[in-house]
């Protein structure tokens, strides 16, 4: 049905029926601190004049063109990978593209089977027992993993340590989602020399109330953490381990299910690299997996495989508390999506590549980033921020009198998205930049980046 807005007389009638004076009174249970500023009687921010359909189409086309205008060497949680044409050709079929949440199993077998395969692939990649039908994005998946870990503690109490090698944006999202529930989050600083969590980093941790330790692999700087030692240490303190992983990297790296003494307890991450484009900040796909004993505390939905009376395979939503839909205050989680379309996209992508194809992509990413770092650090005034093993990102430190923002602006003028500045989030490393090279980057593009940066740095040094 088309959207039909309420007329002023409709609104007046509703208010009279409810015996209230203003629509804002319907939301009085929301704390004032959470309300937008204009809800208290002030004016909302100034908006531009309404546009007609033609003008809106032109505006969106112009915005879409911005996405493909630069050669991308940015990462930091969103990555440009090759997407086989078949992925979206299949995902945009009407059966998938416009399908509603598959509550009715008898009418949703295709969608349910695809999501079941997605869960199986995530469990296989992470080395875990069971995975759910996905969450909104990686950041909210980490928040849900932390909430799940506190529920598993029984009393719901304790401190969760999050290394500052987890994405700053993810840490902000986690803080927003879990802090209203009284959960104590502590930032665990990394070693300033290695860019990773070390035994010295852990020495300052108060372990008496440690409920969970978050371990990223690879971390925000693209570096590989000592996951075996960190996992075993956390378990020795009686804490759970929450792994944050890149699904492409899992094709090469040790899966969290076998880390340390008995593996990670909960695994989460961002599925965007699995067939989702960089399209003005979306779409995204969170995934979460865990050990079988913990499955009843898992948020979201799980698709299960069973058989009917005739022995035919069938797929259903299972282990789904009705409180999630009815009595929200008693729900394990109030996640009300299975990100069905994005889960199907990831399933098609992984099916097309298979284990060998995924390994080839991961190897190409690592090789390209190695080549990028070698060429860039050969330039006077450019050094690696950290040494050590990496996946497909690396930190650089620039010296020469120009700010990172100025360098990135000049690179953009040359058609290059040169990376993500780090200083705003990590002031201890001024002049730092995070660069990334996936399998999409060619040798010519890497050389072009190096040539442009060399020219920019040489010009800056001459002006000193």
Structure description:
This protein has a seven-stranded mixed beta sheet with strand order 2-8-7-6-5-3-4, sandwiched between helices. The model has no long low-confidence stretch (mean pLDDT 89). The longest helix has 38 residues, at 340-377. It folds into two domains: 71-77 and 354-463, Alpha-Beta Complex (Aspartate Aminotransferase, domain 1); 85-349, Type I PLP-dependent aspartate aminotransferase-like (Major domain) (Aspartate Aminotransferase, domain 2, 3-Layer(aba) Sandwich). It has 464 residues and is an alpha/beta fold. The chain has twelve helices and 15 strands.
Précis, in short:
With about 475 residues, the chain is an alpha/beta fold.
Write the layout of secondary structure elements.
Blueprint: H1 8-18, H2 53-67, E1 71-72, H3 85-91, H4 94-97, H5 109-126, E2 130-131, H6 138-152, E3 159-163, H7 168-178, E4 184-188, H8 199-203, E5 210-217, H9 227-236, E6 240-245, E7 266-270, E8 286-290, E9 302-307, E10 313-318, H10 340-377, E11 382-384, E12 393-398, H11 404-413, E13 416-417, E14 420-421, E15 432-436, H12 443-463
Parallel strand pairs: 1-13, 3-4, 3-5, 5-6, 6-7
Antiparallel strand pairs: 2-8, 7-8, 9-10, 11-12, 12-15, 14-15
Helix pairs in contact: 3-10, 5-10, 6-7, 10-12
């Amino acid at each position: 049905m088309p959207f039909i807005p309420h007329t002023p007389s409709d609104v007046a009638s509703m208010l009279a029926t409810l015996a209230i004076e203003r629509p804002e009174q319907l939301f009085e249970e929301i704390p004032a601190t959470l309300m937008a500023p204009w809800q208290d009687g002030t004016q909302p921010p100034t908006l531009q004049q309404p546009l007609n359909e033609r003008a809106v189409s032109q505006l969106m086309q112009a915005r879409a063109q911005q996405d493909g205008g630069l050669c991308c060497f940015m990462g930091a949680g969103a990555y440009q990978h090759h997407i086989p044409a078949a992925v979206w050709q299949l995902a945009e079929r009407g059966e998938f593209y416009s399908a509603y949440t598959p509550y009715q199993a008898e009418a949703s077998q295709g969608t349910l089977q695809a999501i079941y395969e997605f869960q199986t692939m995530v469990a296989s990649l992470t080395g875990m027992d069971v995975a759910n039908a996905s969450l909104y994005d990686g950041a909210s998946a980490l928040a849900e993993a932390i909430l799940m870990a506190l529920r598993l503690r029984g009393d719901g109490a304790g401190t969760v340590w999050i290394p500052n090698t987890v994405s700053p944006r993810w840490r902000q999202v986690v803080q927003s989602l879990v802090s209203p529930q009284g959960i104590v989050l502590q930032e665990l600083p990394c070693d300033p020399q290695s860019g990773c969590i070390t035994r010295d980093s852990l020495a300052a941790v108060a372990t008496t109330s440690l409920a969970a330790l978050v371990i990223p692999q690879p971390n925000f700087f693209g570096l590989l953490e000592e996951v075996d030692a960190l996992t075993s240490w956390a378990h020795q303190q009686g804490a759970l381990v929450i792994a944050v992983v890149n699904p492409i990297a899992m094709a090469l790296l040790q899966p969290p299910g076998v880390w340390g003494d008995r593996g990670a307890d909960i695994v989460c991450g961002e599925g965007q690299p699995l067939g989702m484009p960089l399209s003005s900040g979306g779409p995204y796909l969170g995934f979460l997996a865990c050990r079988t004993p913990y499955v009843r505390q898992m948020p979201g939905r799980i698709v299960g495989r069973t058989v009917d009376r005739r022995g035919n395979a069938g797929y259903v939503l299972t282990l789904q508390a009705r409180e999630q839909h009815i009595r929200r205050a008693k729900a394990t989680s109030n996640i009300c999506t299975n990100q069905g379309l994005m889960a199907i996209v990831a399933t098609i992508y992984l099916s097309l590549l298979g284990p060998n194809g995924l390994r080839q992509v991961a190897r190409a990413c690592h090789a390209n980033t190695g080549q990028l770092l070698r060429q860039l650090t050969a330039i006077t005034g450019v050094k690696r921020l950290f040494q050590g093993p990496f996946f497909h990102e690396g930190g650089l430190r620039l010296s020469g009198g120009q700010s990172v923002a100025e360098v990135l602006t000049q690179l953009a003028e040359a058609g290059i998205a040169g990376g993500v500045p780090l200083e705003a989030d990590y002031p201890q490393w001024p002049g730092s930049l995070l660069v990334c090279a996936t399998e999409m980057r060619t040798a010519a593009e890497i050389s072009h980046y190096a040539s442009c940066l060399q020219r920019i740095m040489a010009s800056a040094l001459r002006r000193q």
